[in-house]
Fold Major facilitator superfamily (MFS) profile domain-containing protein.
Amino acid sequence: MSFYESASFIVSQVLGNWLIGGTEGSAVNLLPTAAAILSLVALIYASQRLKEFPRTTKFEDYKIKFHSYILMDRRIWLLSWVQACVHFSSVVFWILWAPTIVGDGREMVLGLVYPCLLGAKMLGSSAFPWFNGPLSLRTEEYLVYTFVLMGSLMSIIAYDYQEIEMLLILFCLYHACLGLVLPSLARLRTMFVPNELRAGMMSLSLAPSNAALFFFLVQRGYYHNIENSTVIALGALGLFTAAGCMHMLKRAGKQPHQSWIKL
């Protein structure tokens, strides 16, 4: 899914570059309206499809299962924190990569950089079957080193001035790692989280990261209390803590479900 997601984004970026460069301004102004209409049609279609599936789980049963399988399992808390850190760092990167690369008056065609980043993400996601197939590595093992590498890359981007060529290399390496991380985390969720509770676990992990993003966006964009480099460094710190959580998850091993107090 990560591979096809990146491929669709690349196609949309190529189409956008072509429309902006080869059409009149009036045609370009119609693009947001057309995108909104297509999104609305897709949302209506998805809602109609969801109505066809009967609700098999009551809210009380779901609450009991969520409490026993999610809130009382230490492994789920570790995995949720890892998911939150990855979400925070990736969103911070996508918000600040353009100001970083054009800092100090440097000129760059951002529309050409975007497909390169997505191509690197596709390359990383295509490597996922190799890590779980011929290499026969545990997901937790290689994710520890991947998070350390991603945190190091973000630290260099935050505090070490680089030329455009070096920044592009760092950006592409980060996205290659991200393309490997996303399907790996999805595999861990299938291992540890029951299918009917997976959406609740994702919401639980995204809540703190979204709250932190909102706080730092207000502090940076409205009050100007922090710098872009500080926000990127916080994303790097989150990735380092994700590596520690993944190491603890590796030590826990593939044990049956038990209370987090006993782990």
About this structure: The chain is about 80% helix and 0% strand.
